[in-house]
Amino acid sequence: MADEKDTASKAGTEAPAPARPEGATGSPAPAAAPPSGYPPMTPITPGGPAPTVKPTPRSNTVGPGIRASLEKKPAEPEGAVSRRSFMKWTLPVGWVAFSAACTSSLVATARFLFPNVLFEPPQAFKAGFPGEYNVGEVDTRWKDAFGVWIVREADGFYALIAVCTHLGCSPNWLAAENKFKCPCHGSGFYRTGVNFEGPAPRPLERARIVLADDGQILVDKSVKFQQEKGEWDKAESFLKA
Amino acid sequence: MATAKPPQPFLTRTWEYITETQIWRSIFRHGMPSTNRNRVLVVMTNVFLHLHPVKIRKSGIRLKFTWCMGGLTFFLFLVETFTGLLLMFYYRPTVAYAYMDIIDLAEQVPLGIMREIHRWGAHAMVITVWLHMFRVFMTGSYKPPREFNWNVGVILLVLTLLLSFTGYLLPWDQLAIWAITVGSNMARATPLLGHEGPGAQLLVLGDVKMVHAGSDARFALLGGRFVGEGALLRFYVLHCVGIPLVAGILMAVHFWRVRKDGGISGPV
Known about the structure:
heterodimer, A: Rieske Iron-sulfur Protein, 7-stranded antiparallel beta sheet, 4 helices, 11 strands, disordered N terminus, B: two-stranded antiparallel ribbon, 59% helix
């Protein structure tokens, strides 16, 4: 560093003096003194012979001051950050920061598509008192609002989720035929929810059904019981009367 | 002095006057396309025409070779854009209004056929885009150097189908709701991104599922757990803005590459 500084300062002091070192043969020749071998410039006179004026040749080499400034690093104060070392660190940091900003913007944009609050019917609801249901009936009163049938059997209740296990349409309860029938592709289910016709691959799902503190039936669709997983034996899939 | 010119007819004089005004000459920076040079300039100085080649082979306009299916598809896209824009003046994408606005468009709004034009144009566009693809396949036009444009075309085909899919929900009748219910339920089975798809059960943090019914691809598509208000609005935005925008950009690329990859209809 001290060596550089020394030479740089030396070059700085030498630069104004046009001391021509050996090898630096040419410098931009002034127009007033063209090199020998060229005719002197003559004024153009109308009607006269066209003068053969050639542009003065330019040298490809640079002057000593410029060369020194190219070869030597410029003088800089002690402790200052050079342009090179500045770029050496800020470029990677800048690119990393830019990439991180782009990535986080993408993630944030994707997150924007997932709302925090849904204006949908709640997953759990109270379905009245057990005495309001008739034994042996499939009750359809909650189907439109919450998508659930409550079936009252002799020994208790279960809640069937009214979503066809084929492709998710809403089946209908056909009391006369004693079955659930999906209008989309014709899947049929027994009143237990077990599938017996059409493309549905598995029985309807049951929802958690318990008694609330106030004695009403509480149905919670966020807890589901699937027959093919043996979950219909679980306690809260069936409410004993 | 030169001999006096015979008096020109009025229309000719008017035409000459118009074409020599600064306004005309600033818009059309070439003469009448009566010479080859001017014909080239007509194409090259027009932002819309320059997507197309300056010259085409005579065979390029033979119906037998292209069936004009790509051109018909683009024409139908323009029809859909125009009629769709008009429909947007009346249609409100909310659960409360959507179905009634469709009825209103058919029964009360003047030119009640507008929605039918849009609907039948959409059906026709799906048909023509498939036939276009069929033709391109049968003539081997997907082969190098046209393989990139084939891929652009495949994306455009998918976008056309997505336009159909998203538009299907907007009437908000039983057919629409249940068709989209069935269609979007397929997204449940998306690998990794669908909560019933393969690999989704692998994405867990401790006991917490990362991909569940409230965070999977279907949820993002519908903006909810079932086809409701959120789904209607999302499909509307995608149908009217999102997909047409992407399709328009890709169409420009598609047409331009037809020109750059050896021109329409013919061996390279």
